[in-house]
Write a structure and sequence with these properties.
single chain; alpha+beta; 3 helices
């Protein structure tokens, strides 16, 4: 789906979840505004790095501009962070970025599509799709917690990557 520009400003739902059994899980980033649902596929390492980056950004913003303290009802314990149906990814994520708009006090999560045919991209025939999710700080903090929790639910030693290791002494 190259050349698409998707934007939800602001989202009322944002999560990371997985589909499939441990060792073969597929990670998805999902955001919605009303009935408009966008699902993207990403890698486990991207979900982990995103959680860390969000927390670092929010900690920095909170130091410079303390939150108003008016957290949404049920924050975040009662929020449903499960993926919503239908889970039909728009694209696989290649790059992720974060930004902050002081005026609106919203964080923007920007994702760029992974293009398989780099020759077409190099020639300018195809531009990668971009999706932007704008969210309030509490929802971004909840996303970071959810992403970290989902990553931790995987194999105890991800370095093994499902392989059997043999040792001889």
């Amino acid at each position: 789906m190259p050349n698409a520009e998707l934007e939800l400003k602001p989202v009322d739902f944002l999560t990371i979840g997985t589909v499939g059994p441990r060792g073969r899980r597929v990670f998805h980033l999902q955001g919605a505004k009303g009935d408009n649902l966008i699902t993207l596929t990403l890698e486990k390492v991207q979900a982990s790095a995103l959680a860390e980056a969000i927390n670092e950004l929010l900690d920095d913003i909170d130091r410079r501009r303390p939150p108003a303290g008016n957290e949404p009802p049920g924050y975040p314990q009662d929020w449903n962070m499960d993926l919503r149906e239908p889970i039909e990814p728009e694209f696989r994520v290649a790059q992720i970025g974060l930004g902050y708009d002081e005026e609106s006090d919203l964080i923007v999560l920007v994702t760029q599509e992974l293009l398989v045919d780099e020759d077409e991209a190099a020639l300018g025939i195809v531009r990668p799709s971009v999706a932007r999710f704008w969210a309030a700080r509490p929802l971004m903090r909840a996303l970071a917690s959810q992403a970290a929790r989902i990553v931790e639910q995987g194999r105890p030693d991800p370095q093994r990557n499902g392989r059997i290791l043999y040792y001889w002494t």
